[in-house]
Amino acid sequence: MPIDHWDLLKKTSRTFFISIKQLPGLLAESMCLSYLLLRVSDYLEDNLYMSSEEKIETLVLWESILAQKERPEKLYKHLDREEVALEADGYLSQQAGELLKLVGALPEKFQQASLPHVRATTLGMARWIAQGPAIQSEEEMDDYMYEVAGRVGFLSTELFAAYSPSIQKRLSSLLPLATDSGLALQTVNILRGLRKDYERGWIYIPESYCQEAGIKQEDLFDPQQTPAAMQVINRVADKAEQHLTKAMSYVLVMPPWLHNIRLACVWPMLFAAQTLAMSRHNVNILTSEVKIPREYVVKIIRKTSLLGWDNIWLMNYYNQLISHS
């Protein structure tokens, strides 16, 4: 029985389901399937039951499968655990072969815009698992974020260009800004998932940031070090805002008459801006994940659907969201 890739997308990420479903025709199909392939990579990187060595092995294998050098069945032996199917991303990973059949049915230009970036991201994840969980500097943080998210900005841009001649003509302006869309979302994800990542042994905030505040990485979660920890949190928030502002510039380059594509780009950025505003100066970020209420999501979608074609209004709204805590 064929898989329902849209249902899988909704189960693995309601936020991206909202944005990707907004896209037209083949672009929506291509973006949906690309995102699901990346979620497989994410699961192989993040799951809690594989050792680091097995994660590297499966990521390298998954890249070979994406390159059509290996068969998907080889991946399944690593996923043959009862608990895997109980997780949305785990079940998705067990459907990797079916996903690739759907990708193979896409026009060649969409495949070529997507698969090389998914492969590169997958190998980047494997490299970082081999390197280990200790991030020392901002340069290392940027390298990690580029590998796991920054390349996705190029993937999306090339898919947009494959669909739209108008976007194709603007590639020289879009590509220099494309990485920041992925980096922006990933920096906010690091903040909102800080505690969860720590509990699985990873701290993505650089040691250098902590040293500037007079603490070590492991001190971030010490209640006696909360004032210094919040200095570090706000430093990361400043970095996220810098990436978000550049990502908004990317959206403004998009042709205003391609309103649905612009909305699909801007919604994740505005959700991230709202999340960032809620994370600043918020000590709860050290103990739990920060999520924006559903009513905020609905409000952002409603307002931008009406007025998001207007660049001046859009930037004013972005500045309003990111400055409101």
What does this structure look like?
The protein is mainly alpha-helical. It has 2 domains: 1-132, Farnesyl Diphosphate Synthase (Orthogonal Bundle); 133-325, Orthogonal Bundle (Farnesyl Diphosphate Synthase). Helices cover 73% and strands 0% of the residues. It is built from 17 helices and no strands. Helix 3 runs antiparallel to helix 9 (138-163) and helix 4 (52-66) packs antiparallel against helix 8. It is globular.
> In angstroms, what separates the terminal alpha carbons?
47 Å
In sequence order, what are the helices and strands, one letter per element? HHHHHHHHHHHHHHHHH
Q: Tell me the strand percentage band.
A: under 5%
Percent range of helical residues: over 70%
Task: Provide a quick synopsis of the model.
This protein has 17 helices and no strands. The protein is mainly α. The longest helix has 28 residues.
Keywords:
globular; mainly alpha; 2 domains; 325 residues; Farnesyl Diphosphate Synthase; 0% strand
Helix and strand arrangement:
Elements: H1 5-12, H2 14-21, H3 25-46, H4 52-66, H5 73-76, H6 88-94, H7 96-104, H8 108-131, H9 138-163, H10 165-168, H11 171-192, H12 194-199, H13 207-212, H14 226-253, H15 259-279, H16 294-307, H17 311-323
Helix pairs in contact: 1-2, 1-3, 2-15, 3-4, 3-6, 3-7, 3-8, 3-9, 4-8, 8-9, 9-11, 11-14, 11-15, 14-15, 15-16, 15-17
